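Workshop exercise sheet. Pairs work together: one partner reads the sequence aloud, the other fills in the structure field after running the prediction. Swap roles for the next sheet.
Pair: D.N. / O.F.
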Amino acid sequence: MNNNKKNSLIELFKNRELLFGFALLVIFFSVMSDSFFSTSNITNILLTTSIGGVLSLGLTLVMITGDFDLSFASAIGLINIFILVLLNQGFSLWLVFLFAIVAGIVWAGINGILVVKLGMHAFVATIATWTVCKGIIYWISGGATYYGDYPKSLSIIGRGTIGIIPISSIIFLIITIMIILLANYSKFGRRMYAVGNNSEAAEYVGINSKKTRMIAFLLEGSLIGFAAIILASKLCSGPASGGDGFQMNVIASAFLGATVFRPGLVNIGGSILGIFLLSVIENGLIMLNVHFYFKYIIQGLIIIAAVAFISLRSKKKNEGPPVI
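Structure field:
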């Protein structure tokens, strides 16, 4: 076992609070509800996690380089409607899926131009694009859910299963493996972390920080496209609020993930664990008939706790601001 793998295992056990928290939640909900471990509920958790998980991977890539994106939720909602409109016009399913990925890349490219090329603050730029995107959604849909006549094959990705494993979860797993290899075991991944830690120092050693940040946005865009495909396949409709439900879960998972594996740093492994933990919380609360608004309270508290943990750790070690 090489040193990198040894260090990864050591860090995993040193920073195990999130893992223990996840295990305790699973035990708690399984005791409180007999159907928590039912086949249908496990499938439901996996279905929910696959869309948020793909979005979380994309956001994490952008955050690793020190940027941020608030527009991804509205972007997935808009691309979902585009998919349905094009299918309703008779376009080929696979051609429409290709369009969805390209549309995601184009959308993220616009964010990248505003943030990287024009130097706008990421929060300001992506709040603006989020607002524009919401306006386009309401313009197309009239504020109502978009319906149409779609091929039956549309629902295979979002609703189909192999045994109890949803096809969308298999897609999520494949994408996760690819992104982990990219972020943690490639030259480009090391460049992303270097830019996120200190862009000036990265430039000094020959890394093109603007190019690295731009590529991270474009990669996020492709993942938004994949997530939109899964969403369209799952819903087979285009609600005006189609992507809104994922926004806080995905953002919370990225911040929560920065408390484990590489504490203080946004990282892929932590974000994946974070999205599963949040999906289990949401599912468990529903099974216990807890009022829906508690989900938002918990999401907010989790973000506060995660950011506080990262900030306190940075101060304790006399480090600079956390890379989030």
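Discussion prompt: The chain has a mean pLDDT of 87. What would you look at next?
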